[in-house]
Amino acid sequence: MGRAVDLGVLTVIRDMGLKEPYSGSINLVSGEIAEDLTYYYAVSEQTPSSVALGVLMNKDNTVRESGGYMIQLMPDASEEVITMLEERLKNIEPVTTMYTKGHTPESMLEYILDGFDLEITEKIPARFHCGCSKERVRKALAAIGKKELESLIEEGKPVEMNCHFCNSDYSFEAEELIEIKNSLK
User: Please, are residues 157 and 129 in contact by the beta-carbon 8 Å criterion?
Assistant: First the structure.
């Protein structure tokens, strides 16, 4: 049976330090972020994965705790390991339940991967980071070419650019646009 309404598209963009970021997209299958990410990894990257997420809210509608886990199989995983992991994941409590019981990210992994050789080799604090800068945006402006830059300069207004990842705004006055145009060959 088909859906009457399309749920939309999930696009994953990863900056792997190459010239252009990697981008992959799939149609949403459920509207639940964890389920759609699991589907994305299976279909787009052919990587069997289990993704679970949860959010605990306070009575004043603020977030008390949020997080989750993503477990991916290595390419050489044995059938025995796959079967063990599938059985284990069938009986795992929701992330919100684990948080309610006082689990940390590490203890959550220890609980989920009980019976496996889990070794936590590094802890990295989660943080939002965007690599944008005025210099990177300047290079993007240079890429549009002299003719387009001349057109922007003739308008005489500052050019406003916005980073769609972190929502930072960058403004370039006519003098800066002239410098960018003059730096082109």
Answer: no
Q: Which backbone phi and psi does 162 adopt, to 5 degrees?
A: -130, 135
Radius of gyration, alpha carbons of the chain: 23
Residue (of 100, 172, 104) closest to 136 by Cα position: 172
Q: Tell me the C-alpha distance between 37 and 82, whole Å.
A: 19
Q: CA separation (Å) from 42 to 2, 130, 163, 180?
A: 21, 27, 30, 44
Cα–Cα distance for residue pair 104/34, rounded to 1 Å: 19
- Please write the tens of the pLDDT for every residue from 103-131: 988 999 999 998 888 899 998 887 888 88
The predicted model scores a pTM of: 0.66
Scanning the chain, the segments in alpha helix (DSSP H) are 33-43, 79-90, 95-100, 105-112, 134-142, 146-155, 174-183
Among the listed residues 77, 74, 111, 105, the one whose alpha carbon sits nearest the alpha carbon of residue 91? 111
Determine contact, residues 106/122, Cβ cutoff 8 Å: no
